[in-house]
Amino acid sequence: xxxxxxxxxxxxxxxxxxxxxxxxxxxxxxxxxxxxxxxxxxxxxxxxxxxxxxxxxxxxxxxxxxxxxxxxxxxxxxxxxxx
Length: 83
Description:
Elements: E1 17-18, H1 20-26, H2 31-39, E2 47-49, E3 52-56, H3 57-66
Antiparallel strand pairs: 1-3, 2-3
Helix pairs in contact: 1-2
């Protein structure tokens, strides 16, 4: 019996729309954290296609790149929150 392909698209044609779990995996996090990021606006909302939620890969990538780097979150040593 011939082996079924694991994907319909060739490697040279990546999808432009992905489901929630794939969108989360795309940026290296779990689906629950991804949901929180969508809720608070740090990740884009999905599009609805016939009742299915689909995220635009380029929008997810752009939102990810807009999240500050770790070094940008470090407190300013000159500012003492206890003063």
